[in-house]
């Protein structure tokens, strides 16, 4: 029996929509699947003229269980009644406080909505409700010139989303140019974004075109947008607003006709509130905002992804050689490296299997233990005692993390970027784990590439 038969593809889901209004107002805004931003910034969909409210304070959206309330890094917090929340779902009509302002959220009756039928977009596949909704939104956005902000964890495929948007757009035959915002030197930020003339500054021994000029007629993809230094952000904002660039050292502007797509794994709204990312730039780049869900939240897509990987390897029938036990192990794996981790494991398993069974789960486990750790971290019997299951699990996880990151540091000392690549975690998470377990690394705060 083909493993594809195990993939469930629901045709509908139940959603509870609702509405929100400022307590002192009679006008209400509808709440749907797309997040509604609330804050002091005039670009928010619901503006609160309250000095105690952050520029972008919270987001509200419809969820299958109720209305999702998500604080996005506000300074004074978001409260449901007397309880401060960071990310919660309310299941009945409630009053929400932001600063000194009160919002009244009213829930509607549950209703069934049809899910889009599309289960692929470019190289991306998925039959889960979240991915089908994402593909429908991407297909509609691809036909426009609206800027798109792609959110998601490391390894979810944000660059694939950007390329698929380009390849399904009217600009598909023009260039697709990638700008890695994390690698832009602060001292050369303007020259990197706008280009420069020969001799414009020390070391400029030749002219360099702006990526916006190189991509003229096509798409510019701003990868790792959250890493863009604050002092460079006005240059990008000006390009987006004026659709022209003036290279450093030049006397004339060059008109550009590009579509801009950006991606980040960071919470940009928290950065807006912290003053490290401009709110006007955020809203200009997020005309359409999409979020790629982590693989752990859509494990039902694992067989579809495996099928696509094997097709790309020229062996479409390999999925039938994945043992059921291996597939079940994959369906219980958390995939910290997301789709990238699964694809890597599938590629290795296929290459080494020959005509035998393709045990993909075996190589996912190896990805977790390639630094020399055990495949299953044993519990310290002194830890377990009469502890609760959750406490024993927490201690065991602490032991595993400490051992893992010590071995990671031994393998690639002083190189956070390489640690990130090997572990499948973002540089930020690598740093946090190292600091949490007191593991010292020279130049920890720097990125050595």
How would you describe what is shown here?
It is a single chain. The protein is of the alpha+beta class. The chain is 33% helix and 20% strand. It has 15 helices and 24 strands. The protein has helices spanning 129-142, 158-167, 189-194, 211-214, 233-242, 268-274, 279-285, 302-312, 324-331, 338-353, 360-369, 381-384, 389-411, 416-423, 427-436, and strands at residues 12-15, 18-22, 29-31, 36-39, 46-47, 58-62, 67-71, 78-80, 83-85, 87-90, 94-98, 101-107, 111-114, 120-121, 124-125, 148-151, 176-180, 195-196, 208-209, 219-223, 244-245, 254-255, 259-264, 288-291. The protein has a six-stranded antiparallel β-sheet, with no helix packed on it. The protein has a five-stranded mixed β-sheet with strand order 5-4-6-7-10, with no helix packed on it. Strands 17-20-23-16-24 form a five-stranded parallel β-sheet. β6 (58-62) and β7 (67-71) form a beta hairpin. α9 (324-331) crosses α11 (360-369), α10 (338-353) crosses α11 (360-369) and α14 (416-423) packs across α15 (427-436). The longest helix is centred in the last third of the chain and has 23 residues, at 389-411. It is globular, with a radius of gyration of 24 Å. It starts with 11 loop residues before the first strand and ends in a 13-residue tail after the last helix. Residues 1-8, 365-388 and 443-449 have low confidence and may be disordered.
């Amino acid at each position: 029996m083909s493993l594809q038969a195990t993939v469930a593809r629901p045709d509908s889901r139940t959603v509870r929509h609702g509405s929100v209004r400022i307590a002192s107002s009679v006008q209400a805004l509808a709440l749907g699947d797309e997040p509604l931003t609330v804050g002091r910034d005039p670009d928010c969909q619901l503006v609160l003229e309250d000095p105690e409210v952050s520029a972008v304070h919270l987001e509200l959206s419809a969820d299958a269980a109720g209305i999702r309330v998500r604080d996005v890094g506000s300074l004074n917090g978001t409260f449901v009644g007397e309880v401060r929340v960071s990310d919660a779902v309310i299941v009945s009509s409630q009053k929400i406080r932001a600063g000194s302002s009160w919002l009244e959220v009213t829930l509607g009756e549950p209703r069934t909505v049809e899910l889009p039928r599309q289960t692929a977009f470019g190289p991306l596949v998925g039959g889960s409700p979240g991915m089908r909704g994402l593909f429908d939104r991407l297909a509609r956005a691809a036909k426009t010139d609206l800027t798109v902000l792609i959110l998601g964890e490391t390894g979810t495929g944000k660059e694939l989303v950007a390329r698929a948007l380009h390849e399904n757009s009217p600009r598909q035959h023009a260039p697709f140019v990638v700008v890695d915002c994390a690698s832009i030197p602060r001292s050369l930020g303007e020259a990197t974004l706008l280009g420069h003339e020969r001799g414009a500054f020390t070391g400029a021994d030749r002219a360099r075109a702006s990526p916006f000029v190189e991509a003229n007629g096509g798409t510019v993809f701003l990868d790792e947008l959250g890493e863009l230094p604050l002092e460079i952000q006005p240059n990008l904002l000006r390009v987006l607003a004026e659709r022209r660039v003036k290279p450093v050292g030049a006397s004339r502007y060059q008109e550009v006709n590009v579509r801009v797509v950006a991606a980040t794994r960071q919470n940009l709204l928290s950065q807006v509130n912290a003053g490290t990312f401009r709110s006007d730039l955020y809203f200009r780049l997020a005309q359409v905002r999409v979020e790629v869900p982590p693989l752990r939240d859509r494990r039902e897509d694992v067989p579809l992804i495996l099928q696509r990987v094997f097709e790309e390897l020229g062996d479409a029938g390999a999925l039938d050689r994945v043992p059921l036990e291996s597939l079940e192990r994959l369906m219980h794996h958390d995939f910290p490296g997301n789709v990238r981790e699964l694809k890597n494991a599938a590629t290795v398993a296929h290459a080494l299997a020959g005509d035998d069974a393709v045990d993909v789960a075996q190589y996912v486990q190896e990805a977790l233990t390639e630094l020399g750790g055990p495949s299953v971290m044993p519990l310290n019997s002194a830890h377990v005692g009469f502890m609760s299951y959750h406490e024993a699990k927490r201690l065991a996880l602490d032991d595993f993390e400490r051992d893992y990151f010590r071995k990671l540091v031994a393998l690639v000392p002083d190189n956070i970027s390489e640690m990130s690549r090997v572990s499948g975690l973002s540089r930020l998470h690598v740093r946090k784990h190292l600091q949490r377990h007191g593991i010292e690394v020279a130049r920890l705060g720097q990125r050595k590439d």
